[in-house]
Automatic annotation (TrEMBL):
Residues 136-157 are annotated as: Disordered. Residues 5-102 form a coiled coil. This is K-box domain-containing protein. Transmembrane segments: none annotated. It comes from Nyssa sinensis. GO terms for cellular component: nucleus. Residues 26-116 form the K-box domain. The keyword Transferase does not apply. It holds the Pfam family K-box. GO terms for molecular function: DNA-binding transcription factor activity.
Length: 157
């Protein structure tokens, strides 16, 4: 009987200590939640200020700090943009080298010296380049526009 009573008392002590530990954990978690809520509020206020909202209550020093932070951010963004552009330029240069080598190989395959295209090919290239550069119609047409449209359709067919 004495053993049963001792076991009961030990169990009762364990339950009390468990309750105390649980209560301490709950208090700690409530404190952490309050801290997180404060941090979130601070970040939201900072975000609003960076977006240019609620600046009326800011002091000159706060405004200067916000300005410096924005300038640092913009400079980081510009540096990243330039880095990406440089990488793209390098990739395009590599692609150009590959295409030039392939072009030289094709010239060699057909027994022509590199860069020696015929007059007709030159005219086609010039025509393509001029079309790409200009959206203006440079041909001279005589007569009403309906006639030009009909002729263009007949040529395309």
């Amino acid at each position: 009987m004495q053993e049963t009573i001792e076991r009961y008392q030990r169990q009762k002590k364990d339950v009390r200590t468990d309750k105390i530990v649980i209560e301490q954990n709950m208090q700690h978690l409530q404190h952490e939640a309050a801290n997180m809520a404060q941090k979130i509020e601070f970040l939201e206020v900072s975000k609003r200020k960076l977006l240019g909202e609620c600046l009326g209550s800011c002091t000159i020093e706060e405004l200067q700090e916000i300005e410096q932070q924005l300038e640092r951010s913009v400079s980081i963004i510009r540096a990243r943009k330039m880095h990406v552009f440089k990488e793209q330029i390098e990739q395009l240069k590599e692609k150009e080298k590959i295409l030039r080598a392939e072009n030289a190989m094709l010239w060699e395959k057909y027994g022509l010296p590199p860069g020696q295209e015929s007059n007709e090919e030159r005219e086609n290239l010039l025509c393509l380049e001029s079309r790409e550069k200009s959206d203006v119609e440079t041909e001279l047409f005589i007569g009403p526009p309906e006639g030009r449209i009909k002729r263009a359709r007949q040529q395309n067919d």
